Amino acid sequence: MEPVDVENLVHSSSTPGEFWSRLAQMLAGSWGFSSLFVIQRTQKEIRLLGKSDSARIENVPQEVQRAVAQGPVDKSSRTSLGDGVWVTMPIRIPGTEGGYLLGLTDQESEGDESRMGLTAEMAVSAFQATAHAKKQAASHARLTEVLDVGMLVSEAPHFDEAAIRLCNEVSHQTGAMRVSLGWKRNERIKLVATNHGGRIRNDTELAGSLSRAMEEALLNNTEVGCPPLSEDVISQQHKTHSESQGNSHLLSMPLRNGSEVVGVLTIEHPNEDGVVAQDQIDALRVILDLIAPHLDELHRRSGWIGARWWRSCRRAVRGLLGYRHTGWKLAGALLLIVLVVACLVQVTHKVKAPFILKAQSSAVLTAPFGGYIERVHKKVGEKVKEGDLLVELDQRELLLQRAELISQNDRERSDARRYEAEGKLADMRLAQLAAEQAESKLRIVDHRLSRTEIRAPFDAVIVEGDLEERLASPTQAGEVLLRVVEISDTYADLQVDERDIHFLDAGMGGKLAFTSRPDERFEVSVQKFEPVAQVEESGTTFRVRVIVDGESQEWWRPGMTGTCKINAERRSLAWVWLHRTWQYLRLKLWF
């Protein structure tokens, strides 16, 4: 796309709608886009300014439409879909909040699409300037010069060539004897090009004087001249340089990429030629505002890789220390403060583990012999004292056996006395043995009778054995009837993860809380460990016994669960938060 094409477009378009559509068609044809849209975004709506002939808004994929609708586009992006590559490129539209080009191309690489954006911006600026020039015909020639300079500079592939072209074109249009371009480096200005061409030597007196004058414009952040353009602007270095060059007329203009000054252009005229006219200054300002971003981008890509990397780092640091994106920077500063505090502040590392409350003493009460349950005196959950009657077994069969054995014993004793009187010593002895056997059986029956009453072995609570529904039902010898536990002497059985077991030692203190009453805390101490781990579906754990330092509570029951935290050692907050992650990474990455 040649400058003459842009010029024809600008002058042949009578309305903004026609201009935007023709601009889209020309850009699409010059850069190989099958469809191209020119879109303007405002705070309230998204407007379609123009499109190429083949472009249809309904053909834009939903993904691209959502990306456009989500927010303003501040940099170029490429989205590869099945029908090609959709390119979104921001452009500046003077007098508005800006807009962007949305186009479909089959080119995978970016190519010179940045030049297309620059061309579009210059065309827009030229069109708006031309519209204004219809009211002010005298400015038409200057605006054409703006377009020519911008196009010539944008066609340069390298920064040095673009800088020389800028100096030559400005010198040609203004009739200056010398036009010099300086670029900002470490908050200083380095001379990079003049309209005379050739190698620039920054160690000469002339180069030093020019650099100081340019730095004066950099500090003022506005145009500085000699004679002065304004009484409020400091121009001492310009005056000094002018005197050293025979009282030449001097004008320095900053180049801005956004709000940042990236370079300074200095124009020198002989004394007899007079000062630069205001309309020329306005035209030059438009030129520099248009080409400064492109020059800055070329400068970023110039030099060896180390220089480019260093410039990128410096821009990142400037962005970090600048006034923009205050919210993100404040969040980053707060995060940094939190990390520093977390690394310095020492806290007690607490090993967390679930626990089950268990009793030190428990007893299983079984049926002493086969029989029947006659009466149940206590229920599950009731507290009992040592010696309290819990269950009675049926005694009737045993009482009958006892009566029969007593009768048998008396009968055998009587027979033994009778045989002794008759002198039948052998029969007497047999009768005595039978009586002794009956007495032995009687003692067994008495013992069983004494065991028909099952009593509490100690102060405890019944935790197992609901016998009310088993009244008069038979029991087997050794069958479990009741289970009682002592509630005054309990301990917590912890299941400590194998990753935390090495933090614990006997005697360490901590606190536990029950699931049923999480608001209450109880002091505990580590008593002992089980040396063998338990492998379960949830992981490998070690059982650790902790004892409660205070008295047991009335509402405690064996089997209750909760969480226990043991005070291990003092560590930094960062270590407490991240040590599990660090262990995981070391294990997975093996370092």
Report on this structure.
- By secondary structure, the chain is of the alpha+beta class.
- A hairpin with a 2-residue loop joins β3 and β4 (84-91).
- Strands 11-20-24-22-21-25 form a 6-stranded antiparallel barrel.
- α12 runs antiparallel to α13.
- The mean pLDDT is 82.
- The longest helix has 27 residues, at 396-422.
- The chain is 41% helix and 28% strand.
- It has helices at 3-12, 16-31, 62-70, 113-133, 140-154, 159-174, 205-220, 236-244, 278-300, 305-321, 326-344, 396-422, 425-451, 573-589; strands at 33-41, 46-51, 77-81, 84-91, 99-105, 178-185, 188-194, 224-226, 249-257, 260-269, 346-359, 362-366, 371-376, 383-384, 389-393, 453-455, 460-464, 474-475, 480-485, 490-497, 509-514, 522-529, 534-536, 539-548, 561-572.
- The chain has 4 domains: 3-133, GAF domain (Beta-Lactamase), CATH 3.30.450.40; 137-319, 2-Layer Sandwich (Beta-Lactamase); 395-451; 489-589, Efflux pump adaptor protein, beta barrel domain (Elongation Factor Tu (Ef-tu), domain 3, Beta Barrel).
What would CATH call the architecture of the largest domain?
2-Layer Sandwich
Specify the helix fraction band: 40-55%
CATH topology of the largest domain: Beta-Lactamase
Give the CA-CA distance, first to last residue: 58 Å
Largest sheet: 6 strands, antiparallel, barrel
The level 1 CATH classification of the largest domain is Alpha Beta
Taking all Cα atoms into account, the compactness measure Rg is 50 Å
Task: Compute the number of structural domains.
Answer: 4
Structural class: alpha+beta
**What's the CATH H-level homologous superfamily of the largest domain?**
GAF domain
Q: Helix count?
A: 14
Q: Tell me, what's the shape?
A: rod-shaped
Mean pLDDT: 82
For the largest sheet, list the strands in their spatial order. Answer: 11-20-24-22-21-25
The total beta strand count reads: 25
